[in-house]
Design brief:
By secondary structure, the protein is of the alpha/beta class. The protein has two domains: 2-385, TIM Barrel, CATH 3.20.20.150; 403-445, no CATH class. It is built from 15 helices and twelve strands. The protein has helices spanning 47-51, 57-62, 84-102, 121-142, 169-188, 211-232, 256-265, 278-283, 288-297, 324-334, 358-385, 387-395, 402-408, 414-423, 435-445; strands at 41-42, 45-46, 53-56, 106-110, 145-150, 193-196, 202-203, 237-240, 250-251, 272-276, 301-305, 345-347. Strands 3-4-5-6-8-10-11-12 form an eight-stranded parallel barrel, surrounded by five helices. A two-stranded antiparallel sheet has the order 1-2. Strands 7-9 form a two-stranded antiparallel sheet. Strand 11 (301-305), helix 10 and strand 12 (345-347) form a beta-alpha-beta unit. Helix 5 packs parallel to helix 6 (211-232). Bound molecules: D-xylose (XLS) and nickel (II) ion (2 copies). One nickel (II) ion (NI) binds at residues 277, 279-280, 316, 318, 348. One nickel (II) ion binds at residues 197, 241, 277, 305, 348.
Length: 447
């Protein structure tokens, strides 16, 4: 494929739209940003550098609107082509045109998203090699960058019983082959990270599952992924994406805390990080902020797939997250800990099936971008005011006092601590946690 200045012979796909620019909160242009002003400096950093936003290939360009109950509902012009390969090339041209018009810096993909249908593992390898060259040409042309790549290990029916945790070694070898190729492609493209989402690494019933064996496999082959990363000199993070269930009944990567236990068992702490998704957080019974706080406190923070579910049904509906408060609560955990490093905010979100126009893809992303920008501004205000921080400091201040220090010292024993109660005549009272006051501080800062 030749990639000319316009993005190939096929472009433009969105002739009537864009570029999407910052126009400010007073603007009533639905195809403009009201809050995302990429060069605005917030907490000492440009908004673009804080948020490092990415558009995902699978929901935005690949999905044709098919669901469990209905046929494709979208007629994307890039789904048609002179051949399956031509359609893949057209999809790629559309992807870079869309990203450029939205003025966002990053994209993410699965191996199968960027190639024509590939009947064998060998064909997928060849097609991915070719697609990698085409992606590199588009990156050079547009300046857009790869946030992360990933191998799709859930779609092919051979992975029905898992990929790395499959009972059949032949199938595990195919999964390893796909991961090796996709990690190499991600590296060749200067990708910032590599993600593994274990959608089918788990079980549907214990009646046919050897948990012990499958977890051993998972640890073993994940260790080899890490070994390969170092072998090829890939500097980005390897990340696992926590999710408790769907498509399988139980997923081994249930949540961040579970992954921590798994990584420490296989000596992979510090080597593997997490890619957190709000909709997966709520599926596991946690808030988005909880998962971020847990990852930060365990030194596992990687990246974010930004989206949300629907609070009534609990599925992974992958909607654009418009909940400014929810994202602010997550950002006040993330930003003081140093922010995203190599990670970013990837819009792992899709328009609803009834939103069938190309303009709906723009409205979805513009809403998501602006909501995130408002959350960033809200979080920055809270952090700059410092009231939350000083409240926490005051709450734990006792640990700086002599008794607190002595209790944490290595010389302390259960006896030495217990004896202090009578010796010092301790009979302490409870201090207010001030939850409602703190919640009001958050609400008052929302932009
Ligand atoms: C699905 C996951 C998926 C990963 C990429 O629930 O979120 O989209 O992010 O394989
Ligand atoms: Ni995701
Ligand atoms: Ni998801």
């Amino acid at each position: 494929m030749t990639v000319d200045a316009q993005g190939g012979a096929h472009a433009p796909f969105f002739p009537e739209i864009g570029p999407i620019c910052f126009e400010g909160p007073q603007s009533d242009n639905p195809l403009a940003y009201q809050y995302y002003d990429k060069d605005r400096v917030v907490l000492g950093k440009r908004m673009e550098d804080h948020l490092r936003m990415a558009v995902c290939y699978w929901h935005t360009y690949c999905w044709d609107g098919v669901d469990m109950f209905g046929a494709p509902a979208f007629e994307r012009p890039w789904h048609q082509g002179a051949s399956p390969r031509d359609a893949a090339d057209r999809k790629m041209a559309a992807a870079f045109e869309f990203l450029t018009k939205l003025d966002l810096p990053f994209y993410c993909f699965h191996d199968v998203d960027v190639v024509e249908p590939s009947p064998t593992p060998a064909a997928l390898s060849d097609n991915l090699r070719r697609a990698t060259e085409a992606l590199a040409a588009h990156q050079d042309r547009t300046g857009k960058r790869l946030l992360w790549g990933t191998a799709n290990l859930t779609n092919h029916r051979r992975y029905a019983a898992g990929a790395l945790t499959n009972p059949d070694p032949d199938i595990v070898a195919c999964a390893v082959h796909q991961i090796r190729d996709c990690l190499n492609a991600t590296h060749a493209l200067g990708g910032q990270n590599y993600v593994l989402w274990g959608g089918r690494e788990g079980y549907d019933t214990l009646l046919n599952t050897r948990l012990d064996r499958e977890l051993e496999q998972y640890g073993r082959f994940l260790s080899l992924v890490v070994e390969h990363k170092h072998k090829i000199g890939f500097k980005g993070k390897i990340m696992i994406e926590p999710k408790p269930h769907e498509p399988v009944y139980h997923m081994y990567d249930f949540d961040t805390a579970t992954i921590y236990g798994f990584l420490s068992r296989f000596g992979l702490l510090g080597e593997v990080h997490v890619n957190i998704e709000p909709n997966h957080s709520t599926l596991s019974g946690h808030s988005f902020a909880h998962e971020i706080a847990m990852a930060v406190s365990l030194g596992m923070m990687g990246s974010i797939d930004i989206n949300c579910g629907n609070s009534q049904n609990g599925w992974d509906t992958d909607q654009f997250n418009l909940d400014i408060r929810d994202m602010t609560l997550a950002l006040i955990e993330l930003l003081p800990a140093g922010g995203l490093d190599t990670g970013g905010f990837n819009f792992d979100a899709k328009v609803r099936r009834q939103s069938s126009d190309l303009s709906d893809l723009f409205f979805g992303h513009i809403g998501g971008v602006d909501a995130l920008a408002r959350a960033l501004l809200s979080a920055a205000e809270l952090i700059e005011k410092g009231a939350l921080k000083s409240h926490k400091e005051a709450r734990y201040a006792g640990w700086q006092d002599p008794l607190g220090q002595a209790m944490m010292a290595e010389t302390a024993s259960l006896d030495s601590i217990a004896d202090q109660v009578v010796e010092q005549g301790l009979n302490p009272d409870h201090a207010s946690g001030r939850q409602e006051y703190l919640e009001n501080l958050v609400n008052r800062s929302l932009v």
